[in-house]
Design goal:
The chain has about 170 residues and is mainly alpha-helical. Helices cover about 65% and strands about 0% of the residues. The protein has a domain of about 110 residues. It is built from six helices and two strands; from the N terminus they run αααααββα. A two-stranded antiparallel sheet has the order 1-2. The N and C termini lie far apart (about 45 Å).
């Protein structure tokens, strides 16, 4: 679970630092957040095809058929969402889909905690911390996708036809 927190925090901080050193795209905290979440979702998606896959398949509640297919599809959805967050014009759509995906995957996390399953040899995160983390991730993806609209934040992303200033 520490990676689920450390990876986005480190990527966000590195992005802010890059912005301070003049990397235009990272001069927006929203873009830094988008990169941090993209890194998080690429990390979690990689587990869908790694040695963690059997653990993720066991996490799918028994009421669902073909848990292997569900794990594969959710992995592809995480990759697509991560890429979508990095494209400003579709970031709101990607954020909406990732929020829905996080809500849809919550039963698997609850099942893993209640069934005492392990993920990579470590016990699944207990229900209350997992739900709390899931709510934080949902809020973060929505802020990343809709932040410029909600907070008036500039994304500093050049658009075709933008004039260069000296």
């Amino acid at each position: 679970m520490i990676l689920l927190i450390a990876v986005p925090v480190v990527v966000f901080a590195v992005g802010l630092l890059a912005g301070r050193f003049g990397v235009r795209w990272f001069q927006s905290w929203v873009n830094c957040l988008r990169c941090a979440l993209a890194a998080l979702f690429l990390l979690t998606a990689s587990a869908h095809w790694s040695s963690f896959r059997p653990d993720l398949v066991r996490m799918v509640p028994p009421s669902f058929s073909d848990p292997g297919l569900i794990v594969t599809l959710t992995g592809f959805a995480e990759v697509a969402g991560a890429i979508g967050l990095l494209i400003p014009r579709i970031a709101p759509w990607a954020a909406s889909c990732l929020a829905i995906l996080l809500i849809a995957m919550l039963p698997a996390n609850i099942h893993a905690a209640n069934a005492g399953l392990t993920i990579g040899g470590s016990p699944a995160t207990p229900v209350v911390p997992r739900i709390t983390l899931q709510v934080v991730f949902i809020a973060a993806v929505l802020v990343a996708g809709f932040g410029p609209r909600w907070f008036g934040a500039r994304t500093n992303t050049p658009r075709p036809g933008d004039a260069q200033r000296d």
